[in-house]
Amino acid sequence: MNRPISVLCLTAAAALIGTAHAEVVSQADNGFALAHTVSVEAEPGAVWTALINPASWWNPAHSWSGDSTNFSLDPAAGGCFCETWQNEEGQPYSVEHLRVAALIPGNQLTLRGALGPLQTYGVDGALTFLIVGQGDGTSDVMVTYNVGGYLDGMDQWAGPVDGVIAEQAERLARLINTGSPDTE
């Protein structure tokens, strides 16, 4: 698919999401779809710069190491959204959280994989950030996470995962709008 058609399709999909701040779009035995929109006081380029630096906004409570500065993102197709650190004895630890599937700088980042405890099950997901400039120095960031596969009781995971994704989107927005992802 060429870039203009891809952008058009993503923009149309974003329009279908609407202006709702957060939503479990659907949930079933075989998966769920989540959608969030946050508004930020920045042009798409500045949003992009923050987005591809998850160490500056991802909540350390949702990390394996307890320290978000251990996160990195290689912004290229196939690139890793990873976490690396050493334990007290100096042994290296690492986690691949997601992998870059599609990247249009300043516009779209799609990552593939299962986050957190979902990694241990037969599921996969697509986490997409779509940045839409509003022409007035602000942007909307539309975040969708579509997860599918086999996990007994998967529909029960939609709410908790939705909470995590909502929190990450809000932290990204706070970082851009205030200079800090934290509420305090």
Summarize the structure.
With 184 residues, this protein is of the alpha+beta class.
Q: Describe it for me?
A:
With 184 residues, this protein is of the alpha+beta class. The protein has a single domain (3-178), classed as START domain (Alpha-D-Glucose-1,6-Bisphosphate, Chain A, domain 4), CATH 3.30.530.20. Helix content is 24%, strand content 38%. It has helices at 3-17, 44-51, 158-178; strands spanning 22-28, 31-40, 71-73, 80-86, 92-104, 108-112, 122-133, 139-150. It has an eight-stranded antiparallel β-sheet, sandwiched between helices. It is globular and about 45 Å long. The N and C termini lie far apart (44 Å). The model is unreliable at 1-20 (pLDDT under 50).
Protein traits:
3 helices, alpha+beta, Alpha-D-Glucose-1,6-Bisphosphate, Chain A, domain 4, 8-stranded antiparallel sheet, 8 strands, 184 residues
Classify the fold: give the CATH topology.
Alpha-D-Glucose-1,6-Bisphosphate, Chain A, domain 4
Poorly predicted tracts of residues: 1-20
Proportion of β residues? 35-45%
Total of DSSP H or I helical runs spanning 4+ residues: 3
CATH superfamily: START domain
Our measurement of the CA-to-CA distance between the termini, rounded to an integer number of angstroms, reads 44 Å
> What is the overall shape?
globular
